[in-house]
Structure formats: C-alpha cells, structure tokens
Design brief:
There is one protein chain. The protein is of the alpha+beta class. It has one domain: 3-Layer(aba) Sandwich (Aminopeptidase). An 8-stranded mixed beta sheet has the order 2-3-4-5-6-1-7-8, with helices on both faces. β3 and β4 form a beta hairpin. The longest helix is centred in the middle third of the chain and has 15 residues. The chain is globular. It starts with a helix and ends in a 36-residue tail after the last strand. Bound molecules: coenzyme A (COA). The site of coenzyme A has 19 residues, from β5, α3, β6 and α4.
Length: about 230
C-alpha cells in the first residue's frame, strides 16, 4: 500500500508522463527517385544546419532533455539539425520558426524519446519535424523537405526514413506530398520522454531501421518497399 503522499506523487507522475501505447508508420523516401517538393518559400526565411552543441542556435531548438541526448551525437557527427529562421518585424534577430533532426549513423540504446536507429551508410533518419504553430500552413514544412532532400541526394544517399503517428493528419499529408511510402506499421509504448519502440509480444518493428533486423544487417540488402500513405 502506498501512503497517500506516495500515491499522490504516483498520480502526478502518471498525469505528467501519460503512459501511452500507440501505433505509428515507419516511412521511407526513395531519394534518387524523389524531386524536392519546391516550396513557395518566402525571402523572409533562411536556414542553418546545426552540427555542434556549441552552436548558439542549438539552445533554441528542442526540449532540454532532447538537447541533453542530442549534444554528444551532434558533436560526434552522428546527427544534424536543420533550423529555419523567420524575419520578425521590429526584432533585431530572426526567430526560429521550424526545425528537423537527422541521424546519419546507427544509434543504439536510446530510451529517451528519440530514435534508436540502425542505418546503412546510404540511409538517413529524420525525426521530430516541428513548425511553430504560428508558421504552419505557410509552406515551411515543404521548405524543410526541399533542403533535406537536396542535401541527402547530394550526399548520394538512397533512403530517408521517418516515423509518424498513424493519426497525425497534417504529418500524413505532408509525408504523402513529399513522396514518402509506408515501410511498416508498428506499435510503441511511451512514458514521458521514454519510448520503447517494440512492445513486448508485438511483431513490430520486424525490419527496418527501428528493429534489430533490417536492411542494415543484410549482406545483400533488398530495396525498401511499401505502399503509399493515402489512396492514389
Ligand atoms: C506537420 C507539420 C510539420 C506541417 O508543417 P507546415 O509548415 O504547416 O506544412 P506546409 O505548409 O509546408 O504544408 C505542406 C503540406 O502538408 C500538408 N499539411 C500541412 N498541414 C496540414 C493540415 N493541418 N491538414 C492537412 N494537411 C496538412 C498539406 O498536404 C500541405 O500541402 P498543401 O499546402 O499543398 O496543402 C506541422 O503541422 C507541425 O509542425 N506539426 C506539429 C509537429 C508534428 O506533428 N510534426 C510531424 C512529426 S512526424
């Protein structure tokens, strides 16, 4: 039996951490076959690529716990963050309007709310695309896609992966518009900043960069495959 104080603490923790079992799509983009969407970006936007935790822009993106996980990975060259700025009237500095994280190398053992991926050198994993609410529906999501796809193609990469919750309508439309296809559907458990991608006894993820098996440990990897997010 918990004393009332402990029970209260537990209730507060559950309220804050909201244990959640969810379903998500793992999606992939066939980079050589994909043209950047060609956003109608305005000259009030600019972007930078953050590759070091010493970059002052780093403190302006993500949550504190995310930055704690991201800092060593940025500094090791495993991750980049694409950050979009918008000019603001009467402000001396442009403000961060959107950002997107990219992982280029395998990451193991993260239960911190960010991806635990296995990748081939020809693959990258993008996650946590975030456009600030006041900038949404202004083509910034597509602006990010333009920058990322152009960059990944120039690096000669073959596949870009992401994941998204199955009921995130805006994200489904964005992914579909950019050209992502579904590699698989999987279940996950999340508790505050902790995410366990594979729920015990569930089949998924069975393959792909979020699983222990996948293209990355196949000596002769097959192409990624799967259908479109929306009916065509
Ligand atoms: C999803 C998100 C990144 C889209 O960014 P955005 O800057 O508003 O997107 P854009 O204006 O570039 O729109 C690009 C396409 O996305 C789709 N889209 C964006 N918002 C949408 C919405 N609310 N409903 C339906 N489709 C939407 C449309 O297909 C749109 O193309 P269109 O303008 O030709 O209709 C943004 O809503 C967001 O940050 N959401 C919260 C965080 C999140 O869910 N991120 C995705 C994680 S996987």
């Amino acid at each position: 039996m918990f004393a009332m104080g402990k029970l209260g603490e537990l209730k507060a923790l559950l309220a804050e951490y909201k244990p959640y079992i969810g379903t998500a799509y793992l999606t992939y983009l066939d980079l050589p076959a994909t043209e950047p969407p060609g956003s109608t970006k305005d000259s009030v936007y600019s972007h930078t690529v953050v590759t070091s935790s010493k970059d002052p822009v780093f403190q302006q993106i993500g949550t504190r716990s995310m930055r704690k996980v991201a800092a060593p990975r940025l500094d090791a060259g495993d991750w980049h963050a694409i950050v979009i700025f918008a000019e603001v009237e009467d402000a001396s500095e442009p403000e961060v309007a959107a950002y997107f994280w990219l992982a280029f190398r395998p990451q193991r053992g993260l239960f911190t709310g960010v991806v635990n991926v296995q990748l081939l050198p020809e693959e990258a994993y993008g996650f946590d695309l975030y456009v600030k609410p006041e900038y949404r529906r202004g083509s910034l999501g597509n602006y990010v896609a333009d920058i990322v796809i152009t960059d990944l193609k120039e690096r000669g990469l073959k596949y870009g992966y992401t994941h998204l919750l199955y009921d995130n309508i805006a994200s489904i439309f964005w992914h579909d518009g950019v050209g992502f296809n579904v590699a698989q559907v999987f279940n996950f458990f999340s508790f505050g900043p902790r995410i366990i991608w594979k729920i015990p006894f569930s089949e998924s993820p069975r393959y792909g960069p979020l699983s222990r098996k996948g293209r990355y440990n196949d000596p002769d990897p097959k192409p990624a495959f799967g259908g479109s997010l929306l009916p065509k």
